[in-house]
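Q: Convert this sequence to structure tokens.
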Amino acid sequence: MAAIFGILHTGQFARLNHWLRASLTAAALFLWGGWAQAHPHMWIEAKMDLQFDAQGQLVSVAQVWLFDEMFSSYAKQGLPETAEGVPPQAELDKIAQDWMSALADPMSHYFTTISQGGDVLAVGEPRGVKAIWQTKTDQLSLRFELPLLQPVFVNRLPVTVSVADPTYFVAYSFEEPQSVTARAAPASCQAIYKRPNRLDDQVAARLAAIPPSGVLPPDLQLAAQTLQHRVELSCP
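A:
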């Protein structure tokens, strides 16, 4: 989502539709009003599913992002509602596609890096993109799947999936142990989730002082890049 807000900061609105511009503008104005005057500005509870084919190859990585209540509330402003008081699924589908278009920017690349043996694995266009309104919690979630252009075996070299916003605009959390699954994986496979390293208190304080429209200086950019949530997949 930092890519989306980055577009908002630079005025490059052409890739986003009217709804997205309006909702993010409202959210940004609210943030400036005193809420979350610090990095991060948005919170996402995430889940990941590592998907295999019948030959035992890793073929895709699916994720579900559950946005915090405050952003979810602003995200649906201006949308029509059904009799149940939720946005129509057709509108949510448009939102999901707009978000994925913005997140495709090379700077963010869906906030996801898949690598094996030190080499980044290329992915194709996202599949199964869906935005869903969670009626029980009044939160918006986004589901998408990143297919590998070339499926890989994991029996020799492990695969690492890293999820992070390099600008630390968005903070992720993965609730163990149910947050990471491996669908149809060979019996020998094991997916281990590793939390990011804890920030130094002084660095954390400096990050907290940066407003929503602020740009991280180089040393804080390096610090933010260490906040990667990693899933290490091995199939010995």
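The radius of gyration is 18 Å.
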